[in-house]
Specification:
It is a single chain. The protein has three helices and no strands. With 96 residues, it is mainly α. The chain folds into two domains: 1-51, no CATH class; 53-96. Helix 1 (6-33) runs antiparallel to helix 2. The longest helix has 36 residues, at 54-89. The protein is rod-shaped, with a radius of gyration of 25 Å.
C-alpha cells in the first residue's frame, strides 16, 4: 500500500482528532436516544467533510421517514383490526 501524501495524512489526522474529541464523546447519547446526531453532522460540515455526503444523507432521511410512516399505518391497521375482532367476540349471546 502506498504511503499517504502530506495532504492526505493531514486530512486523516483532522478527521481522527474531530472524531475523538467531538463526535465519539456524544455518540452514546445519540444512540441511546435514537436521535439524528445533528451536532456531529454540523462538526463534520464545519470541517469540510460533508460536501459529497449531503445527497446520500438526504436520501437516507427520506427513506427513514417513509419507513416510519408505513410503520404508523401498519400499527393503526393492526389496532383497528384487533378492535373489530374483539368487539365481535365480546357481544353477549343472543337467546332465541
Amino acid at each position: 500500500m502506498a504511503a499517504l501524501t502530506e495532504v492526505d495524512a493531514d486530512l486523516v489526522a483532522r478527521l481522527d482528532r474531530l472524531t475523538r474529541e467531538r463526535i465519539a464523546p456524544r455518540a452514546a447519547e445519540y444512540d441511546a436516544a435514537a436521535q439524528n446526531p445533528v451536532e456531529s453532522w454540523r462538526d463534520l460540515w464545519r470541517e469540510g467533510f460533508l460536501g459529497a455526503a449531503i445527497p446520500a444523507v438526504m436520501g437516507y432521511n427520506v427513506f427513514v421517514n417513509r419507513v416510519k410512516h408505513w410503520a404508523v399505518e401498519m400499527d393503526s391497521f393492526a389496532l383497528e383490526f384487533l378492535n373489530v375482532v374483539g368487539r365481535s367476540f365480546s357481544k353477549p349471546a343472543q337467546v332465541p
